[in-house]
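Mods, move this if it's the wrong board.
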Amino acid sequence: MRKIQKSSELLWIFGIVFVALGVAICSKANLGVSMIAAPAFIISEYISKINSIFSVGVTEYVFQGTILIILCLVVRKFNWKYLLAFGCAVIYGYALDFFMFLLGTNAFDTIYIRWIMLIVGDISVSFGVACFFRTYMPLQVYELFVAEVSSVFKLNINKTKWCFDISLLVISVSLALILFGDISSFDWSTIGYSNFHSIGLGTLITTAINSPIIALCGKLIDKTFEQSPRIKKLESIIKR
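Not the wrong board. Structure tokens:
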């Protein structure tokens, strides 16, 4: 099969679209979103009681902006390319809001449909992430944080990623407990068909299956797309 030529920029667009769509689908499944997405959903749920301007998408890129500031403090430097990652986060945030609006806020009707759609959402997110990894275009702040910290401090990138994910899970749980203070309302017997402020069994399932699905999607992308740039001048500027 002939590969689609000069597709690097197209893969970046796919990354934005499929990650945003997948997260929106997982949210509608009402079983818990990934630990990466959870903080924005939790903060947005809390702020929405005070100000409706902060949608999930807006909260997402504001949260990523906060992580970007933390990154600069940790590595003790600032690179203008960091702003590209924030720009990517802003575009992703509005794409997420678009798909959240398109799909609506009500959960899917039946529990088995919700679990099926959670897997569909996870596959969509994994495909989008695999696309991101195959383009020279800027990544979101989450991936940038892991890449920069592991590079500056000479750490294993896989272990750094694992620590980062666990940290976000701890942050998500802490935010839910601090902002809402309703841990007594949590019922373990409902964990298979509901969530606790966007954290649930689906969060753990998503975390467990994302990496292998990303790897499979990557193989499919490698067979289908020739990952060279269409706009070479843009590539030279970003990689400079």
